[in-house]
Amino acid sequence: xxxxxxAWLTDPAHWSGPSGxxxxxxxxxxxxxxxxxxxxxxxxxxxxYVGHTGRGAKGAVNAANLARAxxxxxxxxxxxxxxxxxxxxxxxKILPTLIAMIVLGIPPxxxxxxxxxxxxxxxxxEAAEGIGLTARQVLSRIELPLSAGVIIAGMGSAAxxxxxxxxxxxxxxxxxxxxxxxQGIAQNDxxxxxxxxxxxxxxxxxxxxxxxxxxxxxxxxxxxxxxxxERGGPAVxxxxxxxxx
Length: 245
Description:
Blueprint: H1 2-9, H2 21-53, H3 57-69, H4 72-86, H5 90-93, H6 95-118, H7 122-130, H8 135-166, H9 178-186, H10 190-218, H11 221-230
């Protein structure tokens, strides 16, 4: 299997043309990024509102957990009869998978946004309100910056789920890296099949790593230091000059 994957990935013919790896990666990323942006546009305001006000927290978390429990393929299957009425082509090849990706991307973003804001020290927000900041100013100047790292981590989790779910789009003719899995099974080509698996895994791991680095960069140093102490590990040291080493 390993020899087959290496042989397939090192074949120049698989890296050019309309079915080449760069084209499939671009298709996969385009659909995944679209789904992630739409999921963030829905989940971030809801999570920030619930975290800031405390209203509807139980319902929001329960709804997010319920959405996580729905199988991706089932979501796509439920969406197809509706989306084909909108457009027979796009409504079959793209929209069902996009909807499933958005639904699965919302929970981690919403829960992390709610958690990040709700766990901020209440004395800090009360002090901000005491000096005359409005609720919106407290959210934008205090809560959002302090919870940015947690929110970005949630987006990283959502990105991984979305990238994995995008693979199912190939079953309905969308394309992307899932095409290699579908064609590999149809042609009994294990090299193509497992090369597709490797490429999807690398894309997901790369996205997770990128968001993890961004989350760390956006997490205030004081919070990272306290987190390290609470976990029994070394605290992240402060670096003078406002930059991190």
